[in-house]
Specification:
Length: 107
């Protein structure tokens, strides 16, 4: 809700760091959130979002995938770039999940 004030056209470009904003949201609410985020980006704001929701990740402009596992076995940069490039990554769990979920359509 605090982001709403930044949707005004006259707000200064700002960098936002947002942690798992889709947690607990209904699919329709995730879509509304994505629209609001797209509007913020179109107004010159930058959003850095930590997220595990595949529908959200599939619509990102840029993905940073860390791994290969979690905890002590993670934290290494596996991929940074557009979603289309991530799909070709051979060992990324995120890439595998996206390929499986969207096997029938283009991400």
């Amino acid at each position: 809700l605090k982001l709403i004030r930044y949707l005004r056209a006259d707000s200064r470009p700002t960098v936002f760091l947002i942690d798992e904003p889709t947690t607990g949201l209904h699919f329709d609410d995730v879509e509304r959130l994505l629209k609001a985020f797209r509007r913020l980006v179109s107004q010159g704001h930058t959003l850095i979002v930590i997220e595990h929701n595949l529908d959200f990740i599939a619509q990102a402009d840029w993905v940073v995938d860390l791994g290969p596992e979690g905890g002590d076995q993670g934290g290494q940069l596996l991929y940074a770039g557009p979603v289309a490039g991530l799909l070709a990554h051979p060992t990324s769990y995120t890439a595998a999940a996206l390929r499986e979920k969207y096997a029938h359509r283009t991400v």
